[in-house]
Specification:
Blueprint lengths: L7 E2 L9 E2 L2 H56 L5 H17 L4 H51 L4 H13 L5 H26 L1 H13 L13 H53 L7 H6 L4 H12 L7 H16 L4 H16 L5 H12 L4 H15 L12 H21 L17 H8 L3 H20 L9 H17 L1
Antiparallel strand pairs: 1-2
Helix pairs in contact: 1-2, 1-3, 2-3, 3-4, 3-5, 4-5, 5-6, 5-7, 6-7, 7-12, 10-12, 10-14, 11-12, 13-14, 13-15, 14-15
């Protein structure tokens, strides 16, 4: 027979007797164990839940702090105005997302509390930053306007007081300390007052005298603008005004000289228009200008008299060879002119030669036009080659062609015609003066106008014969005689040799 083991437990009875264990004792022990395991599991779950909650809140807070610290700076650069409204909207959206994504209610509550606190702190900084930014922009705008106002009072002394009043109101409206307002107001007043006096001095001689008088009298009650100038600046402006008064005298003289030059240029242009019109009419067999046209022109009296004298001497006889020689000499001077003063001087020389018919009207106007519009170096070089070929002394006879200058001038006129045709056709003129071009005209003109030594000698004898005939018949031309021309050439040669 199987014996069922029995378990006993001590109950601590006073009798000290021993009681046998029953099946109920086993069931009661299991219930207690289950309760203990359940409690352990619950504790473990709570701990795990708390850890996950803390991790989520910590991570969410860290990410939000990093994100919105950076975002606050970005918005400051992106937006013109304040950033608090835009930043608040973004943080609210982020808060709602964080609550929705929370794994537990406890996590949602904690993350909301944490983000609310952080958002409030950041919003406070954003609002303060908005105010600082607004004030900074107001100061920047004020400073920019202040620079413009300095220019305004420099140009118009009378605008000083109204500008001072406006800037005082603007400074008082800035959100800065009273001490800073006082410093800024003093600086702007000083700037504006100094610039206003400086502009008055620079404006004119009369303004400089007015400024000097105000500064020396130093009557603050009468001239309130003096109140904002310190003693050092007032003394500096006094010395500046004294110096400017001396300078203005020189400048006024220069101004008068400039005005006179401009007047001369206007008269010269008006004169050229009339002369060109007259020359064109002569070449086209027209009537030309009349004394009445000259009287109605805008020329001053001196130039009207000169032009009338030119027209009166128009029919006076002068040897064409002498005119051609003069033209050649002056053309060389025109091409080597180096300054405006020399240009004006040579222009008057040409006009004087036109008056005495040493140059005819066409020659004179061509020289004047060349003086105003210089030609290319290539053309000058070709003309120099032509001049040397046509006017040089013959190696065979030792005789200079008396018609050389006239022939050179005829060649020169052919150049003018060729250039005009090119311009009218809208074609470049450079090929005419390029020896490598098929259109080069230099060789053609040399062949057309050059004469041999024998031809030059015959022309010289013929010229002397005609001169003697005119003397016998009392038709000696007025102007430069042969003897005077020879003497002039000899003098020039001697001068070059002694230089």
């Amino acid at each position: 027979m199987v014996t069922i083991p029995t378990f006993s437990r001590r109950l601590g009875l006073a009798s000290g007797g021993e009681v046998r264990s029953t099946p109920a004792d086993f069931g009661g022990g299991l219930s207690i164990a289950s309760q203990r395991v359940g409690a352990l599991l619950t504790t473990f779950a709570d701990k795990k839940r708390k850890e996950e909650t803390d991790l989520y809140v910590s991570k969410t807070m860290s990410e939000a702090r990093t994100k919105f610290t950076r975002r606050r700076l970005d918005l400051r650069n992106e937006l013109e105005g304040g950033i608090s409204e835009a930043l608040g909207a973004e943080m609210d959206e982020h808060l709602n997302t964080a609550i929705e994504n929370a794994p537990f209610d406890e996590a949602a509550v904690k993350v909301q509390l944490g983000l609310d606190t952080m958002n409030a702190t950041m919003m406070s900084k954003a609002i303060v930053g908005d105010e600082i930014s607004r004030t900074t922009k107001l100061i920047i705008n004020f400073d920019e306007n202040h620079q413009n106002n300095r220019n305004s009072v420099y140009d118009d002394f009378s605008s000083l007081q109204p500008v001072l009043d406006v800037e005082e109101r603007q400074i008082n409206g800035l959100n800065i300390s009273s001490a800073d307002k006082k410093i800024k107001l003093a600086k702007t007043r000083e700037d504006l007052s100094f610039d206003a006096f400086e502009g008055l001095v620079d404006g004119s001689n009369r303004g400089a005298h007015k400024a000097l008088k105000i500064l020396e009298l130093n009557n603050v009650e009468k001239n309130k603008e003096l109140k904002w100038l310190n003693k050092g600046h007032r003394q500096k402006l006094i010395k500046y005004a004294e110096s400017a008064i001396r300078t203005h005298g020189v400048e006024e003289d220069k101004k008068l000289a400039r005005e006179e030059r401009q007047r001369v240029i206007r008269m010269r242009n008006e004169e050229n228009v009339l002369l060109n019109r007259h020359v064109d009419s002569i070449n086209d067999d027209g009537d030309g200008i009349t004394m009445k046209d000259i009287a109605k022109s805008k020329l001053d009296s001196t130039r009207k008299i000169w032009l009338q004298e030119v027209l009166r001497n128009e029919d006076r006889f002068v040897d064409p060879s002498e005119q051609a020689s003069t033209f050649t000499l002056l053309l060389s001077d025109v091409d080597t002119i180096s300054s405006e003063a020399k240009r004006v001087e040579l222009s008057e020389v040409i006009r004087s030669q036109m008056t005495g018919r040493v140059l005819n009207l066409t020659q004179g106007m061509q020289l004047l036009n060349r003086l105003e519009e210089p030609v290319t170096q290539a053309r000058k070089l070709m003309e120099k080659m032509l001049q040397g070929s046509l006017t040089d002394t013959s190696e065979l006879t030792g005789v200079k062609d008396p018609e050389g200058d006239r022939r050179y001038q005829q060649a020169w006129q052919d150049i003018e015609v060729a250039v005009k045709e090119k311009k009218n056709a809208g074609e470049p003129t450079a090929p005419l003066f390029n020896p490598e071009s098929d259109e080069y005209i230099g060789d053609t003109l040399v062949d057309k106008y050059w004469r041999s030594g024998t031809e030059r000698a015959i022309a010289q004898f013929e010229r002397l014969r005609l001169s003697k005939k005119r003397k016998r018949e009392g038709e000696e031309p007025k102007g430069v005689t042969d003897q005077e021309l020879i003497k002039s050439i000899v003098d020039k040669v001697l001068k070059k040799l002694t230089e």
